[in-house]
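Person: At home tonight, work slowly through the protein below, taking as long as you need, and write a paragraph about the fold.
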Amino acid sequence: MLVKDWMSKHVITLDENTSIMKALQVLKEHQIRRIPVTRNGKLVGIVTDRDIKEVTPSKIMALDVHEMYYLLSEMTLKDIMTKDPFTVSPEDTVEYAAALMLENKISGLPVVDEEGYVVGIITQTDIFKLFVNITGIYYSPYQISLLINHHHELSELFDILKRFEVAVHSLLTWRLEAAFPVEGGESVGAVPEQKRMVFLRIEDLAPTKKEALLEELNNKFKVLYAVKEDLSKLSRKEIKRVEKNLV
């Protein structure tokens, strides 16, 4: 999963000498929260709506309306931008971009090429879209969570699903210890390294078949839960698109 496949390619940038007033207009007009700032076309900083909100009150509190607009038209993005912001390459993974945002408490990253030109932007919204896609929730409301003892048991899990002729829409798995918070670089809690969490999204089944499948899975592994979610509140447009692709 590479950044280039999930980033927004039509990114709006502004030169560092652009006035704050102009930047405000751009943010409002395009309903965006951040603008990469460039010099000669190359990235040198980034400005967010929060940056502008934080700088203007302290500067204009004692001014009248005309003085306020004059000051905003004179101040430029280079006066308030965050210089040399965190960036990612189109060839970086989305996971790396997400971790970078999480670790640094930021909600978006400019995507730059090898020469420093902005070729896109990836935000929390893009990460959410990816997460929703890989979970397969638009394809099935039915999820089963399992705890298995070793990754080698995945093949046995597949054998059971094959025997029951169950269509799998998505499968996510990771080491159990990876699901626990990390403090000081060490996992919290003593958990066997080989155990794995498994999350399956499968086709909805007839009650008798579902019951037999869960019994079989629980005999071999540990079923943590099996739920069927109500998808009625989700986008009907997206669900129809998925159903059309399945035909």
